[in-house]
Amino acid sequence: MRATNLNPLLLTLLVVACPHEAFAGGVPFTSDDLNLESAINSNAVVLDLLGNDDSGINNDDYKEVIAVCDINSSDQDCTGNSYSDAIGSVSINGTGNNNNVVLTSDGNASALFQFKYVMQNSAFSTGTAVAEVALSYVEVNSLSDSGSGGCDSAECTLREAIVFAANDGEASLINFARDLNGTIVLSNQLTIDSIDLSIIGPGANSITVSGNDQNRVFMVPAGSERFFMSGLTISNGKTFVNDSGAGILIENATETRFENLRITDNDSIQDGGGLFISNAGFIMINSEISLNSANNNGGGIAISGGFGNEVIIENVTISNNQSSNFGDGLFINSSSGQNTLLRFVTAAFNFGGITDNHIAGAGNVTIESSVFDPGLSIPNSNNITNNSIFKNLSDGNIFGSNNLTDTDDLFLEPLAEINNSGFYGHSFDTNSLLYNHVDNMIGNAGCEVTVTSDQFGNPRPTDGQCDAGAYEYIYIDLIFTNGFE
């Protein structure tokens, strides 16, 4: 059995059952395919060859890799502890039951690495299989921002990985080494000049990319298409003169999507302290924009655009940002033809400028199941608003159903980490107006259907109806959490 239609973004390890000539009384392998991941610049990456093979006898599932070799070697001649070719090398990692092999490769292009291995059971019966390894993604293994210019197993920085992806001529995936934790301090901004690039971080509490209060962190310019990024913290970006978007600037790009990002402590001399979207298609889900500032509009996030650009912000906390003008947390000024959806957004405790959150322009804006505390200024009359709560509403009107305006205290807790997720937000109790506020029969909330969890992984709904905002209340039994006294 051979691999067909390999996904270029994944490494596929295919175990192929050899003809039934297993020597020394061997037991046949299963024929199930085994799919794993590894990188072009793999460095002693463990491959679990035995994970779905059954060589056991009489309820004894003992199995051990005892040799690796070239695929053209006969079974009897396959006796080595290691094998290598121009693409990579593989060696046996330990002995005994359920041992593994490790892969290393310093290739600079996608490639297919093949080798044969011999497996043995407790009765010393043996069998062989062929492994096919498609090397196709890049792994960041260093927190440095320098490097030799190429990604290899010795060093691959995030900047080198992005340059590699821009030049490889195909869809590219950038991952991070499992044991890599800390902050990447940039000497200048990272520019995404690629088509079909995905950067998958290990989590916002594991890797931070910092502008060092000297540079913007990420720039996504015109010409970038289908850029996806997740699992990182973006911080300490700074712009000077007339530049916007200190954390991230997205300008005239198409199909940019962010998930599980934390954008915090960035400072823009103009608009969009954390994030500025200008005439771009953009989606952000399950993320946090906090503690950013702008000298003009949109301390947290600023959105400006025109016809044909769609922006979706869902399950996002926008908090403790500030600006010197309009929209301390959120600022939208879109022209006719741009569609913006705000769904399950909590914009809270953004202070400093003329308005704490501001939506203007003639673009189409849908506000669904969101919360604005202390409030929202909305001179934009092309809005459809449902299931949302505004402690204060000024400079305009909202059009829709099941909305609360000019309310009493919403009883939001201060910004704090929730569920040990690495993300910060505003929790609340059942006495808050946010609790069970969303009527799924009104508007386009998508509770439990389109939106199945909150920003922090709590399921939606947890108690009857969905709650408004980025957080879904969940009862925690403190007796079982803390133990009996």
Automatic annotation (TrEMBL):
PROSITE patterns, per database record: PROKAR_LIPOPROTEIN
Keyword set includes Endoplasmic reticulum: no
Signal peptide extent: 1-24
Domain of life, per lineage: Bacteria
InterPro entries: Choice_anch_Q_dom (IPR059226), PbH1 (IPR006626), Pectin_lyase_fold/virulence (IPR011050)
UniProt keyword terms in alphabetical order: Signal
SUPFAM superfamilies: Pectin lyase-like
Keyword Signal in annotation: yes
Name of the protein in question: CSLREA domain-containing protein
UniProt source species: Marinicella litoralis
